[in-house]
Write a structure and sequence with these properties.
It is globular and about 55 Å long. It has helices at residues 3-23, 27-31, 45-50, 56-62, 70-77, 86-89, 100-105, 125-128, 164-167, 169-181, 201-212, 226-229, 236-243, 263-274, 293-305, 329-342, and strands spanning 129-131, 134-138, 141-147, 188-193, 219-224, 248-254, 278-284, 309-314, 350-353, 362-363. The model is unreliable at 1-40 and 366-374 (pLDDT under 50). It is an alpha/beta fold. The protein has a 10-stranded mixed beta sheet. The chain is built from 16 helices and 10 strands. It has 3 domains: 1-32, no CATH class; 47-112, no CATH class; 129-363, TIM Barrel (Alpha-Beta Barrel), CATH 3.20.20.70. The protein binds iron/sulfur cluster (SF4). Iron/sulfur cluster (SF4) binds at residues 150, 152-154, 157, 159, 194-195, 225, 254. Iron/sulfur cluster is lined by residues 150, 152-154, 157, 159, 194-195, 225, 254.
Length: 374
């Protein structure tokens, strides 16, 4: 299907949810109840989350990978634990050490190396932490560290060293809400962490309802990797939570490679889009995963087929343990320049870096014309 045909299809399908939303119709009815239309969910998400792989030995066994990887994987996982749901493992090609989805989750020997310009707080979260569980970095919006839990552990995670246990978000919530109430310049609340969709539907409902009582808050943004990492989490109950939100709502997903977008993920994203949610994607540019113009082009187009617009392509945050994922700036700029030649503007993500203390994301500038070889 051509992109303009896809856009038209999405536009037509978007007509459905407005009615469905008004009538509070559950996801299964929006999509139809037939097995071929409803995302396949053999186990509920809580079971899939609880049964996520955490032992490097088991991961190597399931993917037929060399046992020589075990010792470094175990050593690296003591610094940042392994966690990967079965549905993600199923998207990895067994025996392929270069698989882009494997590289994102396999604890590796390189994580044990250190580099002077990589730190445990690469984007200045500690300085922006105005209260435990609350970051106020940018004008007009604040970020709530709702939980430290995630469906998946990404080895390059910029918060892999964040002291979530010190925040105790639940007990801090009354103070956080008081802070937001007292500052009427805050118009947007960002739910982050960790992954806010790791919270139960009941806890999310309670949190969102409390936010909605603050009249100067106009928008709610949810940063989540869960629709991609564990799509079963998007159950009817969660769709009801999302449909009931009265604020303008933006879901920013995190997807780095088109192989992450299997049929279940695409169906889940389409269903979210049909509920009237604005869906954006942010990717991290990762060496050996997606530092390739063909891959990034395909990613933007495939995301759009499910109603998701490419938003940011982030240069790696220099977090300790992720040095081996770094793509040099000149190459990043050249890749982005190549994307600009291939994609319409609305599919081109902004190439940015988050800099400690800066008042906004910093665009990378450049005039490179050729994509260097890898
Ligand atoms: S899902 Fe996000 S917060 Fe969680 S480990 Fe991955 S990058 Fe970090």
């Amino acid at each position: 299907m051509r992109i303009d045909e896809t856009a038209e299809l999405i536009r037509k399908e978007t007509m459905i949810p407005k009615t469905a939303r008004l009538l509070q119709i559950p996801l299964s009815q929006i999509l139809g109840t037939s097995a071929e239309k409803t995302p396949k969910r053999d186990k509920n998400w809580q079971t899939q989350h609880a049964e996520a792989l955490r032992e490097p030995e088991e991961l190597l066994r399931q993917l037929a990978l060399p046992t020589s990887l075990l010792a470094p994987a175990e050593a690296a996982s003591t610094r940042f634990s392994l966690r990967v749901p079965d549905s993600w493992v199923a998207r990895i090609k067994a025996g392929n050490l270069s698989d882009p989805l494997l590289r994102q989750i396999l604890p590796a020997a390189e994580e044990l190396e250190s580099s002077s310009d990589f730190s445990t707080d690469p984007v200045g979260d500690r300085a922006a932490r105005v209260l435990p569980g609350l970051l106020h970095k940018y004008q007009g919006r604040v970020l709530l560290m709702t939980t430290g839990a995630c469906a998946i552990h990404c080895r390059y995670c910029f918060r892999r060293h964040y002291p979530y246990a010190d925040d105790n978000f639940l007990t801090q919530l009354p103070g956080i809400l008081d802070y937001i109430r007292a500052d009427n310049s805050i118009h947007e609340i960002i739910l982050s962490g960790g992954d806010p969709l790791s919270l139960s539907n009941e806890r999310l409902t309670d949190l969102i309802q409390q936010i909605q009582t603050i009249t100067h808050v106009k928008r709610l943004r949810i940063h989540t990797r869960t629709p991609v990492a564990l799509p079963a989490r998007l159950d009817d109950g969660l769709f009801e939570v999302l449909q009931a939100i009265k604020l303008q709502t933006i879901i920013v997903i995190h997807c780095n490679h088109p192989n992450e977008l299997d049929e279940q993920v695409l169906e889940t994203l389409s269903a979210m889009q049909q509920c009237g949610l604005t869906l954006l994607n942010q990717s991290v540019l990762l060496k050996g995963v997606n530092d390739d113009a063909d891959i990034l082009t395909h990613l933007s187009e495939r995301l759009f087929s499910a109603g998701v617009l490419a938003y940011y392509l982030h240069q790696l945050d220099k977090v300790e343990g992720a040095q081996h994922f770094e793509v040099q700036d000149a190459r990043a700029i050249a890749l982005h320049d190549a994307l600009r030649q291939r994609l319409p503007g609305y599919l081109l993500p902004r190439l940015v870096r988050e800099q400690r203390g800066a008042g906004a994301k910093t665009p990378l500038q450049g005039v490179c014309r050729n994509v260097p070889s890898k």
